[in-house]
Amino acid sequence: MRWLLLFLLCCHFMTLANVEIRMGLHNFPPYSVMTDNDVCGGEAIDLTREILETADIKVVAVCATAARLYKMLGTGEIDLTINIKQTKALPANIRFIEPPYTQLSLVLLSNDTPAGALNSVEKPTIAAIRGFDYSGQRQRLSAQGYQFVDLPDSIDAIEMFIKGRSNALLTYEAPFTFFMAQRFLPVATTYNRQLLDSINTYYAVSEQSLHKTYIHQALSGYAAAKQLRYFTPPPVSPMTH
Q1: What is the pLDDT of residues 58-104, one digit of tens each?
Q2: How far apart are CA 70 and CA 78, in angstroms?
Q3: What pTM was computed for the model?
Q4: What superfamily in CATH does domain 104-198 come from?
Q5: Fold of 2-103+200-240
Q6: Helix 212-226 crosses helix 43-52 at what angle (to 10 degrees)?
Q7: Which of 4-13, 117-126, 128-137 is the least confident region?
Q8: How far is CA 122 from the centre of its chain?
Q9: What is the tens place of the pLDDT at every residue in 134-155?
Q10: Domain residue spans in the chain?
């Protein structure tokens, strides 16, 4: 019996040798940041590597738009990503890991001037990320007469708004704060901020992944050992002070 157990244990470790775990990321700083040459990094991939990587297991970042990542997650082309549970475009064959990765503040931003007020525009436009329904806020705002201008990622949407090409921006606050800080631009006194929701975001693991059991056990074990409520503490908004 002992020899059988040793054999099974050896087989287990052999199956984990030289494993590549693929983590899908889109441009959503500071958690995931994409450079001009389509290389992505950031806080999320750094932490995930710290938790999952061993001498024989490597975590590889796969950079794509959010809409593309959802398709890749469904087929198992990527093993995991990070996302809120409410996104309708997510495939059904995924598993969310507790506790949440972090909590995001969903905000509607507009210019802090009489001309920039949303109620002064007949059909105000809102820059947003293509494929995101923002926990139902897209439908609610559309029903109120707002017109959406969809962009590939968070930074594209922010830039459209900052350049005055949309009347408002529907965004999670962390990427906007990162963008403004990188360019030394004022935040708190420049824009009207309407907090729409606070939403937890999670590691989402594809059920098609060959490594789903290891990923789940490693992430859950790490959180339990450190008694985490979130893998990354929720940020504090600079616009509320």
Answers
A1: 999 999 988 899 999 999 999 999 999 999 899 999 999 999 999 99
A2: 9
A3: 0.83
A4: Periplasmic binding protein-like II (3.40.190.10)
A5: D-Maltodextrin-Binding Protein; domain 2 (3.40.190)
A6: 100
A7: 4-13
A8: 32
A9: 999 999 999 999 999 999 999 9
A10: 2-103+200-240, 104-198
CB 110 within 8 A of CB 141: no
Q: Do domains 2-103+200-240 and 104-198 have the same CATH topology?
A: yes
Q: According to the model, what pLDDT value does residue 168 have?
A: 95
Amino acid of residue 226: K
CB burial readout 208-221, b (16+ within 10 A) else e = bbebbebbbebbee
Q: Average pLDDT, whole number, for the chain?
A: 88
